[in-house]
């Protein structure tokens, strides 16, 4: 069992680390879009797409960077008490709180799946099976949701990014859970 946990930790951490290192450069893409927005508003006709594209980039940057942040331990903690605790006590508290986080992320993942199904034109009550059907080719895509802005981009791509981000965050939370279990058993991670 410990070998399986260590293997899972190794794979999950590697995937999220590599993706996080790539996504962290998204801030430069965001800066480029915002710079173009400023230039176009000052010297040319304002671009319709820049504000919404900046929002989409920021969502991807934030959600896909979350697992990397959790892996590095750079998430917000209450260090007033936590910093003085022993490693064993920290592992117990982290073990409990990561379970709450997994539940919360599961709810967010289900909401993202429902929202993505809606954006692909599905209005019934089984969004998970619908998306699985779309992926396997047994379901058809309906009328695609578009933003109500003047640019009118399709909404499904950013919603798919949300699904991927929440799923990877759950994967990383399970890795942190395994690390805490191994720490409680006295192993060094």
Automatic annotation (TrEMBL):
Keyword Membrane attributed: yes
Record keywords: Cell inner membrane, Cell membrane, Membrane, Transmembrane, Transmembrane helix, Transport
TM region(s), chain numbering: 21-39, 51-70, 91-113, 154-175
Membrane topology of this protein: Multi-pass membrane protein
A GO cellular component entry from the record: plasma membrane
InterPro entries, per database record: DctQ, TRAP_DctQ
Main subcellular location of this protein, as a coarse class: membrane
The keyword Cell membrane is annotated on this UniProt entry: yes
Ranges for domain Tripartite ATP-independent periplasmic transporters DctQ component: 30-181
Compartments in which it is found: Cell inner membrane
One GO MF term attached to the UniProt entry: transmembrane transporter activity
Function according to Swiss-Prot or TrEMBL: Part of the tripartite ATP-independent periplasmic (TRAP) transport system.
Family: Belongs to the TRAP transporter small permease family.
PANTHER family (alphabetical): 2,3-DIKETO-L-GULONATE TRAP TRANSPORTER SMALL PERMEASE PROTEIN YIAM (PTHR35011), SLL1102 PROTEIN (PTHR35011:SF4)
Oligomer and partners: The complex comprises the extracytoplasmic solute receptor protein and the two transmembrane proteins.
UniProt protein name: TRAP transporter small permease protein
């Amino acid at each position: 069992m410990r070998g399986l946990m260590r293997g899972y930790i190794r794979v999950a951490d590697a995937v999220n680390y590599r993706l996080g290192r790539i996504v962290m450069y998204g801030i430069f893409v965001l800066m480029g879009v915002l710079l173009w927005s400023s230039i176009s508003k000052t010297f040319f006709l304002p671009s319709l797409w820049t504000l919404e594209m900046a929002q989409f980039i920021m969502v991807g940057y934030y959600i896909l960077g979350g697992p990397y942040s959790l892996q590095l331990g750079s998430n917000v903690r209450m260090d007033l008490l936590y910093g003085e605790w022993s490693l064993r006590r920290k592992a117990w508290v982290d073990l409990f709180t990561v379970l709450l986080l997994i539940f919360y992320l599961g709810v967010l993942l289900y909401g993202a799946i429902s929202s993505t199904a809606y954006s692909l034109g599905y209005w019934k009550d089984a969004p998970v099976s619908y998306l699985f059907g779309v992926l396997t080719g047994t379901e058809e895509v309906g009328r695609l949701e578009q933003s109500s802005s003047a640019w009118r981009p399709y909404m499904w791509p950013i919603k798919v990014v949300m699904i991927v981000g929440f799923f990877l965050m759950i994967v990383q939370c399970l890795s942190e859970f395994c690390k805490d279990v191994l720490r409680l058993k006295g192993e060094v991670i």
